[in-house]
Amino acid sequence: MKTFNVPTREEVSPANQVLFDNLKKGIGKVPNLYATLAHSENALGAYLTLQSSKSSLKAKEKEVVNLVVSQVNECEYCLAAHTYIGKLNGFTDEQIIEIRKGGASFDPKLDALASLVKNAVENKGKPEPTLVDRFFVVGYTNENLVDTVLLIGDKMVTNYLHGITKVPVDFPAAPALV
Question: In this structure, are residues 78 and 159 in contact, taking their beta carbons and an 8 Å threshold?
Fold first, then answer.
C-alpha cells in the first residue's frame, strides 16, 4: 500500500501555506490529518470552512457527534483528537468512554443525541424511527437534526481520510473501550 506523507509547509501550495500559518497561530500546530488534506489544492480550505461553519449545536453536542461517529468508524486519529477536545469541553474520562459507546446517561439530551448518531451511522443514514422521535422529545429541533447530519458528514471525511492514509496520530491515544 502507498505510504502517505504528512506534507510540511514547504511542500504545500501558497494558499495552503497561509492555512498552515493560521492553524499554527490558532491552535499551536498543524495536526497531521489537516496537513494531509493539503495534498489537495482545495481540500484543506474547504474542510476548515465546513468545520468552522455556524451550527445550532453547542460545543459539547458537537463533541458527542464527533466521538460517536469516530468510534463507529474506528478512527484512532479522530478518537484521539476528540478525546482531547472533549476533555477541553468539560467531559470526564468516564463520560467520554460512555459517549463513545453511544450513550450519555449523565445527560438525557446528550444521551438521545448519542443514541441517534450511533444508530444512524451504523445503519448508513437510516436510524430507527424511535430514536429520531426521542431526539425531538428531549428538545432538539429540525435545525438541530440537519446540523447533526452535517456534522456526521464532517466527521466521516476525516475518519475516511485517516482510514485510507493511516498518517501518524499526533494527539494522545484514546483509551481502548472495555
Answer: yes
Look at residue 113 and tell me if it is in a domain. yes
d(CA 159, CA 108): 27
The answer to whether position 27 is within a domain reads yes
**pLDDT score at 3:** 82
The span from the CA of 133 to the CA of 136, in Å, is 5
Instruction: Give me the helices (H) in 6-141, please.
Output: 14-27, 32-37, 43-51, 59-72, 76-88, 93-100, 108-122, 129-137
Print the domain residue range for 80.
59-165
CB 6 within 8 A of CB 167: yes
| DSSP-derived secondary structure letter, 5 | P
Residue the block writes with cell 463507529 = 72
Q: Per-residue pLDDT for 1 more than 80?
A: no
- The reported pTM is 0.96
For residue 164, give the H/E element and its range: helix 142-165
Encode pLDDT of 4-62 as tens digits. Answer: 899 999 999 999 999 999 999 999 999 999 999 999 999 999 999 999 999 999 999 99
